[in-house]
Amino acid sequence: MRKLTILILGGIFFLSCDATKKEAPRNKEEELVMYEFSEMALLMEEMCKTNEDLKKKIVNKEGIGEFSDKFLNIHSAVLTNPKDRDTSFEIFSKAFVENQQAIFLASPDEVKDQFNLMVNSCIACHKTTCSGPIPRIKKLLIK
Ligand code: HEC
């Protein structure tokens, strides 16, 4: 019974975006728990990956291609907690998408600063909704 409680608590931490969710499973039973990612969580993972690739291209001064429409899904993807999609979420997601788009319009001199602006708009929203992943998002910043 005690183990079950721990498992359930672990699941709640994970879903509520707590930093502890990135901890390694503490025992075999926990490893077996199947987590279900929300559409938004999956999109966020994809946005992380895409922007890690984009960062490499900017740092290596390679061509960066075009803005991907998949980022627009932030306006519709289903959240773990649908109540998180409030007015402030809409404002932050709009600012984020604009900053992401602007990277592809920036001059070579401005592209790094514009990329960092985009990363800061990820962080700005996360401060209001989901602070767990912030240390990971900060690693995207180009120094
Ligand atoms: C408008 C607000 C907002 C913006 C902008 C935003 N996020 Fe998120 N992010 C969230 C919310 C809310 C969740 C929780 C999603 C859920 O559980 O359904 C989340 C979840 C995540 C997660 C955890 C996903 C998981 O594994 O559970 C990561 C990583 C993440 N975001 C990275 C980013 C990155 C990188 C950016 C910018 C490229 C970004 N976010 C922009 C609100 C935002």
From TrEMBL:
Any one GO MF term held by the record is:
heme binding
**Which residue positions does the secretion signal occupy?**
none
Which InterPro entries does the UniProt entry name for this protein?
Answer: Cyt_c/b562
Highest taxon of source = Bacteria
Q: Name one GO biological process term.
A: electron transport chain
Q: What is this protein called?
A: Cytochrome C
